[in-house]
Amino acid sequence: MSDTFPDEARHSEEAYEAIRQVGDGQTSSLPAPWAYDVIGNLMNASLQLPRAFKHLSNGLAISLTQFEMVEEDGADPLKRNAAARAHLAQAGELAKQLAAELEAAQSAISQQVYARPRRMRP
């Protein structure tokens, strides 16, 4: 087995860091026109999750034909692999629901525009 860091692992780490930074943002105010874009980008990312999970599931299945896998606790690797793949399929369905909720959030603020800046109280 290669010690090369797979592209999938690198890309998923980069996605995690990007989303973490959105959550750690220092902005106290995020007007609807900007939030609309952020929500849209997160929605688009969530739409890619089912395909990513399917790719991971297929990779897990194929790995059993290419590597002799064992479980450290003696469990059946075929059963554990199948369980992981079932969970990935469910995660894909939940990601579709996430995308729908984000689309609804985006739609809810789609008509908000700047009227004029409010004065900040000291």
What structural class should be given to the helix and strand makeup?
mainly alpha
Helix coverage percent: 55-70%
Number of helices: 3
Q: SSE order, as H and E? A: HHH
Q: What's the number of extended β-strand segments?
A: 0
- Beginning-to-end CA distance, first to last residue: 62 Å
Shape: elongated
Sketch the major β-sheet.
Answer: none
**Strand percentage:** under 5%
Structural topology:
Elements: H1 7-23, H2 32-66, H3 77-108
Structure described in brief:
The chain has 122 residues and is mainly α.
Can you walk through the features of this model?
The chain has 122 residues and is mainly α. The chain has a domain of 69 residues. The chain contains three helices and no strands. The longest helix is centred in the middle third of the chain and has 35 residues. The protein is elongated and about 65 Å long. It starts with 6 loop residues before the first helix and ends in a 14-residue tail after the last helix.
Q: Which structural traits does this protein have?
A:
elongated, single chain, 122 residues, mainly alpha
